[in-house]
Amino acid sequence: MASHAVRGKAVFPRGVRYRLANRSFQGGEAEDQALFSLSFAAVFLYDLIQMAQVHLPTSAGVAIEGTGGQSRFALTSELFIIPLEQARFLVYAPLQSSAFIGNAAVVRFLQALQSTGGDLDCVPPQSENLVQLLISLQILNSGTENLPLRICDGEPQPVGVTLFLTTTCNLRCRYCYAASGDSPAKFMSLETAKKGIDFVFQNAVALKAGSVHVGYHGGGEPALNWAVLSASVAYARERASKEGIKLETSLATNAVLSDERIDWLVQNMTGASVSFDGLPALHDLNRLTVSGEGTSARVMHTMGRFDAAGFGYGVRATILADQIERLPESVEFICANFQPKVVQVEPVYLLGRGSGAVSAETQPFVEFFRLARAVAKRRGRDLLFSGVKVASLSNHFCAATTDGFCLTPDGNVTSCFEAFSEETPLASRFFYGRPGAEPGRFEFDPAVLSDLRSRGVENRAFCGECFARWTCAGDCLYKVLSANGGGDLAGSGRCHVIRELTRDLILEKVAESGGLVWAGRQGGGSSCWQAQSVPEQSVAVTPG
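^ thats the sequence. predicted structure below, dont judge the formating
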């Protein structure tokens, strides 16, 4: 979906390559006289405001005096016009998390406002109501606009660690991004795990952080290094008690576990991400044991025990191109039979054993995701896709570019779950540290670290004109580099999926706000340690 950007240079984002000033909108004289005729939205909003005697600021009250005594308004630095059906447009201001629906006349008004530098003496008097709406949404006169930047500098001070306990696995999933089991197995020692845990607790004390997160992930199944998993959790709990700091623990698992281990997880983990592809028949085509047997029954057994214990977990499903049409059925099956906090679905990653798969980052994925999301909502659940969110803004997609601290079995430091091994193709771009000579210390590579930190979306030229850039935040860096031969992003199927589904979420926010306008508010950025210390928005946000 193309969008028109009304901002400093009044350019169009990706997909439409000409300026707003050259755009000809179709509309007759009647429409031009109805500048405030905003579909089902703003005209009713203004009437309601008048009836309720709630007074928005008037243009005279907030005018900025410019040269020659003219009244001027400051337009937000980022404003996007996204075409909808029936000659209507979604007007979206990401830095304000504000949006409403307007017609072509509204777009022409915004064009005139932008082209005159905010000179309201040059626009028709019937625009006053629209001006008041724009002020209320902080699209006009928003004051100082703080970009949602996470800034990292100096020595890394993470207060969360993810331990990649092993590269071995008891499954041979057909699309495994890590191709787990295809190379010699590695196992982390308890000494290495303790070193990482000590480091983040030292940082938490120094930073006066309230909590530490210890996660378990990697290129294999963490539960297959059970002795280190259980002992390291016990050690982290001891450190948390000693320092008076809250401990959060989580793991990603294929959930093919014994009852004894399931019960231990319930007692000792804050949450878990379970890989489950929905319909048992599909799951058993994709996620097989080493001997080629399906695993859906074992996974469903684990989720049943989690539900019975009231344990918080999420489901993460991988969608292959030839299984897209079954997505609504899969989501219905999950929601009808289990109680995960969230369900996340991802098109198959074209990595590892999935590198030869047909891409599922397509328009059919968008269409069936929409149907599946409606199914989830009827069941009172959220259906997530990692590149799409509008509740928060950021310049970094994940901790991979904000000092994410993950330890491999050998004790080396990578920032990314997908760069799980020193042998992965892009390892040199993500591995930035190694164990130091002193206890509880690590040595960091300043060149790699600086490059990672610079990969915020504000520095990506391709993303500069996209309305979803602060919500997508540039998408997964590993996938971006993989899709573009190690170079900067030049577009991908995921970009289309993200834009379409982000537009859906913005429209949903408008609808949830009464079908009139969405007036969310966002703050500025956050410090690096705050950004990377918080686990992902759900326990289901993990690679497949």
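The chain is about 35% helix and 15% strand.
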